[in-house]
Design goal:
This protein has helices at about 5-15, 40-45, 45-50, 60-65, 70-80, 90-100, 110-115, 120-130, 150, 170, 175-185, 195-210, 230-245, 280-285, 300-310, 325-340, 355-380, 390-410; strands spanning about 20, 135, 160, 165, 215-220, 250-260, 270, 290-295, 315. By secondary structure, the protein is α/β, with parallel strands linked by helices. It binds D-arabinohydroxamic acid and zinc ion.
């Protein structure tokens, strides 16, 4: 194949492949009305709230006292009318409106009428088709009072969604949550003493039975350390990792968050920090029978993560997380991953919090990765390698489906 044929093959195969979105904040409809979708949720996404305060004199306190539609009207006027939507998150809303043939400027009236007319279950099918995904992996919190009742009611499974058992409140906020477990009859203590670890395992095991999660997940601060004398490490060692081995599922560690650097911004208030990956090195070594999905929030940690993934096959780097999910950074991260890991990593997840975001987040991924993947195969051909469309399809399928199916689903 000549370079142009290679580029065309990569574009077509990437466009045709239904992708598995391995980390989102979307919810299957059977969990009730906790899933976010529609134009007002798209415009009030916390990424856009952060951008609003840079272009509008309103204070966060004033903004958060407003109703959802008024908030959306203010963000729309500020970031889409009075300014040009050139940031990644603002352009995403434009791409979603465009995908549905809706006006991408002027009044929101038509868009609001359109989304109000949609029936959610069919809308999900339409959105997934437009995004080119066939499955989305959720984030499910067994200590979130808005989600727990839905699980207690034994919701119907939905082949479009997979559950994930999220551990942040256990591993990062034990002081605020140990009494919730105690009230549920678990013999736990604030300092993790006594039967706390075995009782946390019993609690998580019950939720594994209820949710049937494809993996467990936790976001961790940039200061994450292992080993460490803390309830976080006690519960990781004595409850989470043994249970992951028993259930034969990975643990997803998303490391590098500086929580609420500006608390007044609420969900938009988190920052990013460089982590000491010796904690990852020691965990991969000490828990060789566990599998770890891993995504880091600092750009400065990405190259060394590739080196660690070469040392430990039980590490699966995935995605360009949160502040990294911008073309300029996605390009650098994907190139260095291919150079050091071949096709043995998962290039992207959407992290979508509002349903229709998967449309623009996966459009961006395909647009950014096509020239990178094409260049990879073109360079191989220049060096005498045999490049066929079957090989291109196989490697793209491995990156965007196979690695997840083999590392997570099929073990
Ligand atoms: O902890 C996480 O899963 C992060 O993805 C946060 O949800 C973050 O707020 C986010 O939405 N990133 O895209
Ligand atoms: Zn997330």
């Amino acid at each position: 194949m000549n370079p142009e044929q290679i580029r065309a093959a990569v574009q077509e195969e990437l466009q045709a492949l239904p992708i598995i979105d391995i980390h989102t904040h979307l919810f299957q409809p059977s969990l009730g009305p906790i899933g976010l979708w529609g134009i007002d949720e798209l415009i009030t996404y916390h990424y856009l709230e952060a951008e609003l305060f840079r272009s509008c004199p309103i204070t966060p306190t004033q903004y958060f006292s407003m109703g959802k539609q008024a908030q959306a009207d203010l963000i729309w006027k500020t970031l889409f009318i009075d300014n040009t939507p050139i940031s990644e998150a603002t352009r995403g809303v434009v791409a979603v409106l465009n995908a549905f043939g809706l006006p991408t400027s002027g009044s929101l009236t038509e868009a609001r009428a359109f989304f109000a007319s949609r029936k959610l279950d069919q809308h999900i099918d339409d959105v997934f088709r437009l995004a080119g995904i066939d499955q989305a992996v959720m984030t499910n919190d067994p200590l979130d009072p808005t989600e727990v009742p839905a699980w207690e009611a034994n919701p119907a499974t939905d082949k479009r969604f997979h559950a994930v058992l999220r551990l942040d409140r256990i591993l990062n906020k034990w002081a605020q949550h140990w009494e919730v477990l105690k009230e549920q009859g678990y013999d736990v203590a604030a300092d993790g003493s006594g039967n706390s670890a075995s009782e946390v395992r019993r609690f998580l095991s019950k939720w594994c039975d209820k949710m049937n999660p494809v993996y467990m997940a936790v976001s961790l601060p940039d200061t994450f350390a292992y080993p460490e004398d803390s309830t976080r490490i006690l519960f990781l060692r004595e409850a989470v990792l043994p249970l992951c081995r028993e259930r034969n599922i990975p643990l997803s560690t998303m490391i590098g968050v500086r929580y609420l650097v500006n608390p007044t911004l609420k969900l938009a208030g988190d920052g990013a920090g460089k982590s000491d990956l010796r904690a990852v090195e020691r965990m991969a070594l000490d828990f060789g029978d566990n599998r770890f999905l891993i995504s880091l929030l600092s750009r400065e940690n990405q190259h060394e993560l590739c080196v660690y993934a070469r040392k430990f096959a039980n590490l699966m780097p995935f995605g360009c997380w949160w502040f990294l999910n911008n073309p300029s950074v996605v390009e650098e991260m994907t190139r260095e991953r291919i150079e050091m890991l071949g096709a043995s990593f998962i290039p992207q997840h959407s992290d979508a919090r509002v349903l229709e975001q998967v449309i623009y987040k996966w459009r961006n991924t395909r647009r950014t990765l096509t020239p990178i993947l094409a260049g990879t195969f073109q360079t191989l051909a220049e060096d005498g390698g045999i490049v066929t469309r079957d090989a291109i399809r196989r490697d793209i399928t491995r990156m965007f489906r196979g690695n997840f199916e083999n590392f997570v689903l099929s073990r």
